[in-house]
Request: fold
Amino acid sequence: MRKQLMKGNEAIVKSAILAGCRGFYGYPITPASEITEAAALYMPRAGGVFVQAESEVAAINMLYGAAAAGVRAMTASSGPGISLMQEGISYMAGAELPCVVADITRGGPGLGNIGSEQGDYHQVVKGGGHGNYRTIVLAPHSVQEMADLTALAFELADRYRNPVFVLADGFVGQMMEPVEFPQRAIEAPMPAWAVAGTAATRGNLITSLHMGCDDLEAHVLALEAKYKLAEQREACAEEWHAEDAEIVLVGYGIVGRILKAVTAEARANGLPVGLLRPITLYPFPIAHFQHLASRARVFVVVEMSNGQLLEDVRLALNGACPIEFFSRVGGNAPSHDEVLQLVREQALRLIGEERMAHA
Amino acid sequence: MPSEAVQEYTVAQGRAKSFYARYARKEELQHQTHYCPGCGHGIIHKMLARAIDELDVQDRTILIGPVGCSVFTYYYFDVGNVQAAHGRAPAVATAMKRSRPGSIVISYQGDGDLSAIGAAEILHAANRGENISVIFVNNAIYSMTGGQVAPTTLIGQKSTTTPEGRRAANEGYPLHVSELLATLEAPVYIERVGLGDNKQIAQATRAIRRAVEDQARGLGFSLVEVLAPCPTIWKMNPVDAQRWVRDVMEKTFPLGVFRDHTKEAALRPASQPAPALDEIPRLLGLAEEDLPTGNGCMLARETNVDLQVRIAGFGGQGVLLLGEVLAEAGLVAGLEVSWLPSYGPEMRSGTSNCHVRLSSQPVDSPLVSVPSVLVAMNEPSLCKFDLTVRRGGWVIYNGDTFPGDCMRDGVHVLALPFTRLADELGDPRAANMVMLGALLEIDGVLPQASIDAALHRLVKNPRWIELDERALARGRELLKDALRRGSLAKEPCAEA
Amino acid sequence: MVKGERIETKKQDRGWLRIDGEECKGCGLCIEACPPKVIAMSEELNHFGYRTAIFAGAGCTGCGVCFMVCPEPGAITVFRAAVRHVEASGHANAGIEEAISCASN
Ligand SMILES: Cc1ncc(C[n+]2csc(CCOP(=O)(O)OP(=O)(O)O)c2C)c(N)n1
Ligand code: SF4
Ligand code: SF4
Ligand code: SF4
Reply:
């Protein structure tokens, strides 16, 4: 057996180290603290650097330094800390520095609470910092995906020289599931652009400053071209019993898990239900939506935030299909029964419509 | 040879090697700096470049530029260049130095950058004793943005945001960064110097070299605060501005050495050599020997299991561990499992609960909203969750009597004083394992070997393992007794 | 620094100065700082619009003070009589030590 029972938060750290991450700079916050704690234990063992920073502002700027030095590095936090990191994330996107940030979301706004919520969607997916930039956002729904998507995050961060988020809710961070890791560790290559204090890298410069208007415009356009490429290549979603679904449930993270249970029960009751679970939130898996819209009669968006995911689904469907919406916030998860009830109502409505059509 | 009329001259002072000959990154006027005539930054740049030359560390140097008039340090210094966010250079420097210990990392910052927006970053970098050199240019004003008040602005000094002059009652007093940082234990060298006259400039040159040298020697954190003229914002001619540094600024900011541990400073410990790549999985606890073995306790493939358990009680009753042992045993037995805790402050006092699923199919949702078994370790937990238990399911309750208002049809109840029973075994804290024993007996699918394996993985203290094993066995007996006596609170009703 | 660069002159001074009229911004700090006062400000503007420092052409002691007070990296180059320079450690630092001793302000 290759699997170990492990918390999502711990799996992130182990996967990161296997993926060649050798720097962790963090500040504790529930429900992400286990990541910082595990990094404190394992990073030095692996020959990496661990620093508990004085704030998330410092942590993300340390990441800026580590990445500038050519080291794969990461941090982890939750809403309030991610808010403070936005400055550094914008700078890193501007300076084209790769890094991985795990946001294990909790309730907001403000201090909110420590319950599991998905209210950071806008600030993470749309970019909460200033300027024309995007961050790639991966949304695991299991501990195994916490591990797998963290490794992928480092690859994407390097490929696009851009910050990549692992956006998971408190449930996914806190829960334990069996998880399997690759049996070999990777040694991250030293990027040619880094400033490493060597003769070979002496001529290099890391900056997000472009004084001339034309210079900055060219830079922003180059970033945009990179994002377009990511949109073409990296968008990813799981379709689960969705191919012939008339009612397509949409949700990510822990909600994706709840919707799987609902889908299974609805299918067992003969209802034509399926699940579309975005795995990348940016790039948003638009093609999956458009594909399923050709057959679906309604999309039901379920999230633990107030219609933040819904906005992207609307954009993706662009009017191709009606949308229903259900959300719980404040640390509450949508219950199986609540969603199932909604699905039944939709099914009845669709049958009613059919009858009308045939009458 | 007095007959020789021609005398030879060689260069004694000239452009430092660590400067670019031409500033190609600059958009225009690439033959001169962007600084105003008489600006202190240019003079300090020359001191720094000279120190880098003299210490022969150009290839190793990483210069971190701030936001402020000196944002363009990378135009001039032919070293590795990194431009940082406003005030954050010490954080950037921290990670760069730690990531590349062989480099020479210099954080160059203005007084707005370092003492206002970046006050936290410099304080903590200094307090950690990062082996970096900080050049702190104090010109008593925010220059780049046009002359607003800085923490270092003198009392009475006018700025665009203190048009009547700085008043202590409104803006506080000038911040003495060197003195402040010298209260910390870690820094090795802190000195305040000035650019007020030739003599001061000579001393400043030595201080900056010393700050870089201390780092090259591996001693630790050093900072040189340089009182520097900003003729433009001060609205003075360059010579008057220079004199103002000496005659006025220095009165508020006395020059001198505030910390010098250069002689007694111990070398900072070198970082451990990195382990070989093949070692990493073992260091992470992911080696073959760390994985659970399913030997001998794997369930037959066709066994159909769907156990959904909610466990609740007070923090400290072992609610989470109970669930963990159950989930681990399920994994060892070859099942799909999940364990999801309530988390946060409630773990410290208050109530605690967790969701556990064991299934022969992949676990869809790890949230157990309709448990097949509820383990309630106290009355509040029972009252919170009893209505959620599915018909035909079980409630295992820690208490002598089952509260009347929680009674309902279609659910089996095993209510016993588990804490007292555990106490009889040797420790009341083993109540969770007695209850787990009863739970295991209900379902009966998990092989005992899987439980043993789980227990040994999760509990390290042999005394506790022994106690827990007895507690589990006791729990099993208790359930069997109850079944035999038919003393369960409610008869199961037929499943729909 | 242009290592080994040499110039020739008929004068017997210990020092000699070269000011790059393009790089100089005419701040006047060198003029103020020079102990024997052998630097002056030009009457004409250079083509960037600055009046620039000019060396009197004699009387320089080679102390290097003007170089250190000048904010521009390469506006000033100080030369010293070769014999003395060879005797000195070869380290440019020697110049600044001397600068203190002859500082007049
Ligand atoms: C977050 C942020 N806030 C404000 C600014 C605007 N800003 C640029 S430079 C500066 C002050 C710089 O003053 P100082 O550090 O004293 O440097 P000087 O220009 O005097 O050399 C400010 C407020 C900014 N760039 N970023
Ligand atoms: S404004 Fe002041 S600090 Fe900025 S370049 Fe001019 S003189 Fe220097
Ligand atoms: S080297 Fe000394 S004497 Fe010669 S011009 Fe400069 S300051 Fe004057
Ligand atoms: S100090 Fe430098 S910039 Fe200023 S006048 Fe003299 S040579 Fe020119």
